[in-house]
């Protein structure tokens, strides 16, 4: 065999070897579980591996030469563009981005490595993108976040519940102490016993409602029942009758006494007790305390309006702090700055909201939105 023939044989063998190696590596690329795509410098697809096409149920010929953003959700366009920009600013370095894609089973979450490939002389040649499925990891993160949210909600309710116990029971105890203190001045023992009986019965109902709240499990759903609004409000007023009577309070109901509401009784009682005791605490020294309660129906809410004629609040000055913890707005020695914070927390825990209208010396009106269930 001549030297020329030997040289040609070596070239043929080398070409065959390169061809075999190319086929080998192409087989690896086309049969692994990674997504591999390439684009030209203008961002048009030049290659999409079979696994990528299979997962997206597409044909490569339908997208070759088309803009790469055509297969990316609009919400992820900016993140993708920013990652490509980093690749051009830092040739040869890899950058990562998480992209999503709707598939029949839901949302496919993928993490991609972007890298700008260079030719032999260092000029940009094409963009290589390699991705893999991280959907199970995303789902696990969402599950963990859900558990964190549940724990945070339970902790918030624990603090809330602690206050409910303290405030609701203390109000009843204060009323009982008031009855005992005035009993020496009353000759009618039956009246005293009736007042004590009514107060202790109300205390017993409060404890029953609190036990219902204790039964809340990990699903964080508050137990709710259908209540007669007028009867429940009357019960709350009666439970602190001595405190209400001492302020010579006038109560005006502006709604039908047959109106009903689905709510958590313990929270409803706590909200009312806070609003009533606030009204008593901040009554005008120049007027008899007048309370007006109204109930209106909206599409998504039942709205309870609780209005007093007390000293009012300067909302221009305090609106942003009104429902903050430990925030007080008057020089009252009994003020602790918890009542309105707890009211807001309890209302929101039931899916509702609270609004306020007030001005100095003009009284205050609270609108409590109870979400219909």
Descriptive keywords:
five-stranded antiparallel β-sheet, elongated, 373 residues, five-stranded mixed β-sheet, Beta-Lactamase, 2 domains, single chain, alpha+beta, Heat Shock Protein 90, 10 helices
How is this structure best summarized?
The chain is an alpha+beta fold and 373 residues long. The protein has helices at residues 3-31, 50-56, 77-89, 135-183, 189-214, 229-239, 241-246, 265-281, 315-318, 339-349, and strands at 35-39, 45-48, 94-103, 106-118, 124-133, 225-228, 250-253, 260-263, 290-297, 301-308, 353-358, 364-371.
Secondary structure layout plus pairing:
Blueprint: H1 3-31, E1 35-39, E2 45-48, H2 50-56, H3 77-89, E3 94-103, E4 106-118, E5 124-133, H4 135-183, H5 189-214, E6 225-228, H6 229-239, H7 241-246, E7 250-253, E8 260-263, H8 265-281, E9 290-297, E10 301-308, H9 315-318, H10 339-349, E11 353-358, E12 364-371
Parallel strand pairs: 7-9
Antiparallel strand pairs: 1-2, 1-5, 3-4, 4-5, 6-8, 9-10, 10-12, 11-12
Helix pairs in contact: 4-5, 4-8, 4-10, 5-6, 6-8, 8-10
Question: What this model shows, in words?
Answer:
The protein has 373 residues and is α+β, with helices and mostly antiparallel strands. The protein has 2 domains: 32-133, Beta-Lactamase (2-Layer Sandwich), CATH 3.30.450; 153-371, Histidine kinase-like ATPase, C-terminal domain (Heat Shock Protein 90, 2-Layer Sandwich). 46% of the residues lie in helices and 23% in strands. It contains 10 helices and 12 strands. A 5-stranded antiparallel β-sheet has the order 2-1-5-4-3, with helices on both faces. Strand 1 (35-39) and strand 2 form a beta hairpin. Helix 5 crosses helix 6 (229-239). The protein is elongated and about 110 Å long. Residues 215-219 have low confidence and may be disordered.
């Amino acid at each position: 065999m001549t030297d020329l023939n030997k040289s040609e044989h070596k070239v043929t063998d080398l070409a065959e070897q390169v061809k075999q190696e190319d086929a080998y590596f192409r087989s690896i690329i086309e049969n692994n579980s990674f997504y591999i795509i390439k684009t030209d410098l203008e961002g048009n697809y030049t290659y999409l591996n079979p696994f990528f096409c299979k997962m997206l149920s597409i044909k490569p010929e339908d997208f070759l030469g088309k803009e790469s953003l055509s297969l990316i959700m609009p919400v992820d366009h900016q993140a993708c563009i920013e990652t490509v920009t980093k690749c051009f600013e830092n040739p040869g370095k890899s950058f990562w981005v998480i992209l999503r894609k709707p598939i029949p089973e839901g949302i496919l979450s993928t993490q991609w490595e972007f890298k700008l490939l260079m030719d032999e002389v260092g000029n940009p040649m094409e963009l290589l993108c390699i991705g893999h499925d991280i959907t199970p990891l995303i789902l696990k993160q969402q599950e963990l976040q859900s558990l964190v949210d549940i724990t945070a909600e339970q902790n918030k309710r624990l603090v809330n519940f602690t206050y409910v116990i303290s405030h609701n029971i203390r109000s009843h105890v204060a009323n009982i102490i008031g009855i005992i203190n005035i009993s020496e001045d009353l000759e009618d023992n039956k009246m005293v016993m009736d007042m004590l009986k009514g107060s202790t019965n109300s205390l017993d109902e409060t404890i029953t409602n609190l036990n219902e709240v204790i039964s809340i499990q990990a699903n964080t759903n508050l137990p709710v029942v259908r209540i007669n609004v007028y009867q429940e409000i009357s019960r709350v007023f009666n439970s602190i009758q001595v405190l209400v009577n001492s302020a010579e309070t006038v109560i005006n109901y502006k709604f039908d006494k047959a109106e009903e509401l689905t709510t958590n009784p313990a929270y409803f009682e706590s909200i009312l007790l806070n609003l009533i005791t606030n009204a008593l605490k901040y009554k005008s020294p120049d007027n008899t305390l007048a309370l007006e309660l109204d109930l209106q129906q909206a599409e998504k809410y039942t709205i309870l309006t609780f209005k007093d004629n007390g000293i009012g609040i300067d909302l221009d000055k305090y609106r942003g702090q009104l429902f903050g913890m430990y925030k007080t707005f008057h020089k009252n020695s009994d003020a602790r700055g918890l009542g309105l914070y707890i009211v807001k927390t309890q209302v929101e825990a039931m899916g509702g909201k609270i609004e306020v209208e007030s001005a100095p010396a003009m009284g205050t009106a609270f609108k409590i939105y109870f979400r219909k269930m």
